[in-house]
Structure formats: structure tokens, C-alpha cells
Amino acid sequence: MKNALAGKDQELVLVYESNLVDQVWGDARPSPPSAPLRVHDLKYAGVDVATKLASLRKELGGAGATAIVITMLDEVAWLLNLVLSVYLS
Question: From CA 55, how far away is CA 47, in angstroms rounded?
């Protein structure tokens, strides 16, 4: 990557001293949620976790993939039928 960038008169600069996300948030960063996670009731989720995982594995296999990286929190929550307790009022 360093060589590819150098060829375009660009430079990769590694930042070790600070967390850039913290710098962007500054003092405006909200506190993390304090409510516990719960498994969403099947009547709301529609499909159980085992079925969702089996379907995902089938789709991945059909696409020739052996793995998937899921990082968006809403996608993780959907796949595992998780919900913050604060939303269960």
C-alpha cells in the first residue's frame, strides 16, 4: 500500500498517539448504553437465530464464500435477535 500511494505522490501516515474517533467526538460523545441486551421474542423477530445462521451459511456457500465479517451493530443485533432492554418498554 505504501508503494502504491507513493506512486501517486501520497503518503500513509500511521497515528499511534491518539484515537481519531475520540478526537472527532470530543466532549460531545454520548455515554454507552447502560441497559442490558436481551434476546428478542420470536413473535417480534420472526425467525430464530439458528434458522438465520443456517440461511446465512447457505447463502455464503452458494456465493463461494467461507466467511463473512459483520461489523454493523444493527446487523449483529438482527442476526442474533438482540435488542436493548430500553427498547422493550
Answer: 11
Helices (H), the chain: 2-6, 20-25, 42-45, 49-62, 73-80
30 grid coordinates: 454520548
Q: Does residue 42 sit in helix, strand or coil?
A: helix
> How many structural domains are present in the chain?
1
| Parent domain of 24 | 2-88
Q: What is the domain-level CATH number for residue 75?
A: 3.40.350.10
State mean pLDDT over 34-48: 90
pLDDT tens per residue, range 2-17: 888 888 989 888 888 8
Q: What is the pLDDT of residue 86?
A: 67
